[in-house]
Amino acid sequence: MADHQRIHPVHNPEAAEKPTIPLVTRNSSRSDKGNPAHHYPPHQRKIPVAYSRPPKKRSCLGRCLCWTLCLILLQVIVIGILAAIIYFAFDPKIPKYSVDSMRITQFTINNDNSLSTLFNVNITARNPNKKIGIYYEGGSHLSAYYSGQRLCEGSLPKFYQGHQNTTLLSLHLTGQMQDAAGLLAQLQAQQQTGSIPLNLRARVPVRIRLGKLKLMKWKFLVRCRVVVDSLSTDNNIRIRSSSCKFRFRL
Question: What is the pTM of this model?
């Protein structure tokens, strides 16, 4: 009987051994595709961060400017209301001035070519207002000019002028001018024409009275253009023309 031959498996050293270490590491997910030996982190969705804008801050300069403009506007409105009340309640009219007469008592050239002058000027001030009085305060100034050069100067007295009042002012103006030889020659040539233009300028501080209310101090500015026939001393000077302009300011 033929012997049965048994075949036993023979260990092949070249055959690959089964791995004892798992191909997928712990805490990693399996993948059917690709090499599981490579580890890819899970995809994380990024949430955009919204930054809030800081609140706008008003600068101190802007607030101060706004308050200043508001106060100026309020003052303008208040002044406008007061002016309207005064206008309709008191019917204000501007005072009127005129140069009535003039006399020169001194107009002398000295040895050093200086000029000494003394003028007597009569000015009429009229207050046409029915309900407004005028306080003429101290510190006034009146000057007479010829060809832009001051000949003499003086001041107005301090007095109160009532409603619809006319006041005659007799004023003395004195002056001293150095190196007046050229001015005197010009005056002598002008005097031959019989027409000498003079300018009188007055700056007078006043206070207005509305009924029983006495307002703050103002300044009357009066300019008169006077044309006379001569500037001879001790003679009555004839005034050919006279016109005065008036304005006021604080």
Answer: 0.66
